[in-house]
Amino acid sequence: QVQLVESGGGLVQPGGSLRLSCVASGRISSIYAMGWYRQAPGKQRELAAQITKGGITNYDDSVKGRFTISRDNAKNTVYLQMNSLKPEDTAVYYCNAKRPVTPYEYWGQGTQVTVSS
Known about the structure:
seven-stranded mixed β-sheet
């Protein structure tokens, strides 16, 4: 089993910044990638950013240049630094961990990010 615990969400004004954290515990040696997905009201969950065990990153076009994903292997933590936030970034953000064997992925409980003036 893998447990993922997110923190760092909240309310921020447009143009502001937030940093999300996700701490992984349990059988983390099997994880090959971690990422942040987001789900806005009435929309499907979508990938915002992902980082592999080797440090390769991938971003959705809508967040490129504004969001940065990073990891601290010593702390088993993945971060999402979000700058220049826009109202359309408002969503529940979920931490995700992927494994090459079943179960193929785990999810955190989600953290709300609201961008509003």
